[in-house]
Amino acid sequence: MVPAIPLLPLALFTLQPVAADTPLRYPAAAVIRLIDTLSGKLDESHPGYYRYRSKSRVQQYTDSLKATITADSLTTLEIYRKVKPFVSAIGCLHTGLQLPPAYVSQLNSQPNLLPLQLLFDDRQATVTTNYSADSSLLPGAVITAINGKSIRDLLAVLLPAIPADGYNLTMKYKTLYHQFPSWYRSMIGPAGTFTLTLSDGRTVIIPAARFEELARPGFLEEPSPRETLSFTLKGKTAILTIRSFAASDVKRTGQHFRKYIDRVFLQLQQQGIRQLIVDLRGNTGGTDGNAVYFTRHFFGQPFRYWDRIEVTPTIAGQIKGFTRLFYRKPALREGTYRWKKSPVTREFDYYTLQQPARSVYNGKTYILTDGFCMSSCADVAAILSFHRKAVFIGEETGGGYQGNTSGMMPVVELPPVSLLLTVPLQQYYNAVDTTLHRGHGTPPDYAVPLTANAVINGIDQPMELALRLAGAM
């Protein structure tokens, strides 16, 4: 583990939002100071703060947000609801805003969550799983309003609050599919009962549930697969699934990333397998070294992975004294501070020329992606797409095609309510065409969005299409 720049303690980014009502109220002046502190911290340290919005637009947003503080005082939840969309508007999926853990624990102990898993489009929500005792809510039931608010009105509040790279929406909708009860509680409000208006004209009222009654891997909790890496053969077609590039995830399932990938590509070469399907769906990223190592197996010549890494002048100025034992001082070049290779760690080295792997795959490759392909997984997709090394099937990746802001991610506590702000310190630029897909992820060559019918009936449409294209069906 390498030490962080001594700005703040490191913390991991989490996707699940949290919020709770509290009787405490904070003066309007304190809330305005919080917004100024928040914006100041981001301006100083976040190199992607102005990646998708100009500084003048950010200032306009900041001023307009402060102008909405018209009440004498606000609760913690009221403050959170105002500031959360402001943070998400940066267009950075790694920039997080959380409420204090004790606040979350208090809420989780109470029944206030909708006991349904829902799949959304822009005007309605379809029940895919019913965790309530009301057996009339069958999978496939279409909900048009919840507690008097139409689905469209709910989405108008929720979507701007969910962080994603640039203008991406696939990640936002995927987040709602897996975490809607928590987001509803955070941004709309906790409720003891839910009145549902259905498309068939019925009205159904169901009681709320506690977090512990609903939470399970893949719904309100992160998935916990038994294997991070898996490989199978279907005739002359190979299927490689990579659920994460994170070294911690790979270790948890008792696997070794590089050894596993080496064995797979050596087997492909030895057996003459000419059709490969790589399933990256749900891969939220992780260790860059693993992502780059996998990517090298598709290149017969040296190639560029990242173009550069930038930091703010403030962060560049903190690389001094003890910190320089671990990191080299960023160099000012073309008006920005560029990160340089470390004498100790290789975690930021991948803007240099990358060499091919020993076993390079030259067959036909199909890659499955969705809105939860983020961070380093999105980098992999971008590089392979840019060099036309694969055919992409599924959804636009949630992470940016041109890069992201991540790396070291310290946490700032914002007084007076102790909101926790995660600030990524390094802005990554992928070595791709900068005129393509700005503000979006890697688009699929074959768009296959997730549908309620497919979920309910257990149909894997992207995989079926990949197998047909590979001639395995």
UniProtKB/TrEMBL annotation:
GO MF terms, alphabetically ordered: endopeptidase activity; serine-type peptidase activity
Signal peptide from the UniProt entry: 1-19
InterPro entries, sorted: ClpP/crotonase-like_dom_sf (IPR029045), Tail-specific_protease (IPR005151)
SUPFAM superfamilies in the record: ClpP/crotonase (SSF52096)
Domain of life, per lineage: Bacteria
GO biological process assignments: proteolysis
Any matching Pfam family: Peptidase_S41
Residues in Tail specific protease domain copies: 236-448
Keywords on record: Signal
Name used for this protein in its record: Tail specific protease domain-containing protein
